[in-house]
């Protein structure tokens, strides 16, 4: 039975008690907020910005939503940005949905790559990764990789998916992350924000014939200013396995040359999750900027 999104999830005896997301986490000596920026994890998405410093109390752990929608620029971005959080929620009964905005057709260093074949491969990989995290429908908008706009037609598509899925929580890229080079990540962030606004207000895109929907929370990964943590302890390996499903990206995105380097990728994942967790005294976490006033 899924937990209602407005009820906190009971803590298991083997998990540390964390504060509800609507209550600031006190800066106690046993839950220090670190000012030290750790060394890069080696993952292409998710490391803390070098300019990060605490700007107020952190919150920890939203109540498990009934429905969550994660919006990624490319196949693999959702797993990199929030894979452990989605796996944790799915294990507690949340229904997951994945929205992938581009086709991933430029995700190779091979000059003569068959891009149509790569698109088909990356679709299969994304569906396999979603299954590892806990299942759920995967929607592909198939914008050309590297050419994602943040215009009205694209916003209409994102709005439609939000209204159809009716998520309690939406997760996506932080468009305010400073010096974010890849244009698709920036545009995906704006589309997530603008799509939420359009989905909640009935005067946006009435021609869709879909009822408006207002999510309860928005979580932005790779946050320029993190203010929320989701405890990821126990879900490090699930996140790693979901990333490993993207086999076409092992040598590029994941930085592993062969199957015997799986431990190398898992070490990167654990290093990043530990760095995020250290912001609030947790063993492992994924850090976000949480927007509650939607």
Structure write-up:
- The protein has 294 residues and is α/β, with parallel strands linked by helices.
- It has a domain at 61-228 and 286-291: 3-Layer(aba) Sandwich (Rossmann fold), CATH 3.40.50.10320.
- The protein is built from six helices and eight strands, in the order E-E-H-E-H-E-H-E-H-E-E-H-H-E.
- It has an eight-stranded mixed beta sheet, sandwiched between helices.
- Helix 1 (77-91) crosses helix 5 (236-244) and helix 2 runs antiparallel to helix 5.
- It is globular, with a radius of gyration of 18 Å.
- It starts with 58 loop residues before the first strand and ends with a strand.
Task: Provide a compact summary of the structure.
The chain is of the alpha/beta class and 294 residues long. Helix content is 31%, strand content 15%.
Describe this protein with a few key phrases:
31% helix, alpha/beta, 15% strand, 8-stranded mixed β-sheet, 294 residues, Rossmann fold
